[in-house]
Amino acid sequence: MTPARSRRPGAPTRTERGIPEATVARLPVYLRALTALSDSGIATASSEDLATAAGVNSAKLRKDLSYLGSYGTRGVGYDVEYLRYQIAREIGVTQDWAVVIVGIGNLGHALANYSGFGTRGFRIVALLDADPSLVGERIGEMVVRDFAELEEIVASDRVSIGVITTPAGPAQEVCDRLVAAGVTSILNFAPVVLSVPDGVDIRKVDLSIELQILAYHEQRKSGEAALPEVPELPATMNGLTDLPSVGGGVGA
Amino acid sequence: MTPARSRRPGAPTRTERGIPEATVARLPVYLRALTALSDSGIATASSEDLATAAGVNSAKLRKDLSYLGSYGTRGVGYDVEYLRYQIAREIGVTQDWAVVIVGIGNLGHALANYSGFGTRGFRIVALLDADPSLVGERIGEMVVRDFAELEEIVASDRVSIGVITTPAGPAQEVCDRLVAAGVTSILNFAPVVLSVPDGVDIRKVDLSIELQILAYHEQRKSGEAALPEVPELPATMNGLTDLPSVGGGVGA
DNA sequence: CCGATTTTGTTCTCACGTTCACAAGCTCCT
DNA sequence: AGGAGCTTGTGAACGTGAGAACAAAATCGG
Ligand SMILES: NC(=O)c1ccc[n+]([C@@H]2O[C@H](COP(=O)([O-])OP(=O)(O)OC[C@H]3O[C@@H](n4cnc5c(N)ncnc54)[C@H](O)[C@@H]3O)[C@@H](O)[C@H]2O)c1
Ligand SMILES: NC(=O)c1ccc[n+]([C@@H]2O[C@H](COP(=O)([O-])OP(=O)(O)OC[C@H]3O[C@@H](n4cnc5c(N)ncnc54)[C@H](O)[C@@H]3O)[C@@H](O)[C@H]2O)c1
Fold first, then answer.
1. What is the pLDDT of residue A231?
2. Is A174 contained in some domain?
């Protein structure tokens, strides 16, 4: 019989068949690469080929795939279709997930018009907005509906994923409504930190943050000699009201 | 005098005043939290307060800030305005960075209409598209210009950041053009892995990947008993052409 | 049938990131 | 002036992630 294994120090703590978070974040990239190879009529690919297509190093790719099982063939590589199916199954996109989008402004419109979600395992079942002048507008096949209908829609369409594209102000309130209605995964575009109860997953997309990270590295490239002098902290910390205005604004 | 320090084992390798990547990614969040506190009229905040506002743990926040210098006061906390300025300076958003957006479709329109960049250290100097029927269209204060004008614009406006919102197909080509024109930081929305030479930074935003990560966790929440059986690999790997179609599509 | 060749799956080691815990330093009150 | 009470800055421990390296397994040619 199998002896009760004591955890080796350094081994990642992971529940049965749990996959490291860093790996989970790369699986969709592999899935996309496999789909591209498949569309090019390629039936088999080595870890090196796949790693190149996915923009990662091949050892990392092999280790990532090894968490799913042994789906390759030594000396040969991976069967593209088979591996694609296995990854899709592991991620959970062999069937479609129902999604609602809340806040049909600039960004909400763009998402609603985007055809890429359908081919990647998601089905947008409702576009919701609180603005009465938007309700009833047609976008592609869909019609904008009133945010008040949220609970009904979530319940009848088994919606588990919500996307927030409202301004920052109402975002927490919208988030709470989504959670109360039964949504357990949220993708947030509003520039604000949302708090959710345990059991609800939240991810954020923040374009200003991405640009600011680029700006940081850009600044170092262009030579730090160009940096302004560090103003020293005065003896008293008061009287600092007239510093130059700086980026980092809050709000919609 | 300062003795030449030999690297302690375990200490992160970092060039003079270099900041760990994970910290750099959080500084914009702190900046936003500080701006919010400042707008609420709060002049001083403890690491605990700030950490709550930024959605991180306070030890992490203190360690992150310690890479910038000692800007707090023991027993008191941090001066909100002063710290905000220091972080903005470190990120490099005390002045605006010029940005071009390439591909003015659904997403490009949304970004062009977004007012949030201006208040966070960025100035959109041009909207570019290859489609002649779009060139000349007015969006807010700006007019869509021909992609062919790229080089001229980059040179005359000292543009160092480019945003790609074209379909996946032309994205690499557009990327190469941007780099050749002198752009050294790129934010990519197209679902494709771009390759760039050393010295050019690239970040990607991929909504389908975000949703798929949520789907993975969602699947585990709803009980794995619901998972389809794992199909076994047949003795030969051929003849696998009729697997169910799965999410992960490629293309625009 | 066997050895050469290819490529996976995994182990080992090092680097990076997070969190705890506490001494050092500042303010305020008596 | 001196001690009580906070809060920062950081050393040290721990956990996670990345990559090099290699043994194991499969194919293929002779
Ligand atoms: N547009 C962009 O390119 C862009 C870029 C980065 C970040 N963002 C962020 O994304 C979010 C949306 O941006 P946008 O430009 O689309 O804004 P927007 O103002 O155009 O649209 C917001 C929509 O949300 C709706 N709304 C407001 N309160 C609501 C509520 N309580 N319930 C339901 N709907 C509500 C409004 O009616 C409006 O239609 C903002 O938080 C913004 O900061 C947008
Ligand atoms: N719209 C969304 O919500 C959304 C969501 C996720 C990802 N994306 C991705 O973002 C990108 C843009 O999406 P979209 O919906 O705005 O697409 P879109 O088709 O509406 O717009 C693309 C624009 O790029 C322009 N273009 C094409 N080739 C070009 C070239 N070589 N040079 C310059 N311009 C060129 C086109 O003329 C068009 O205006 C796509 O890669 C898409 O996969 C979009």
1. 47
2. yes
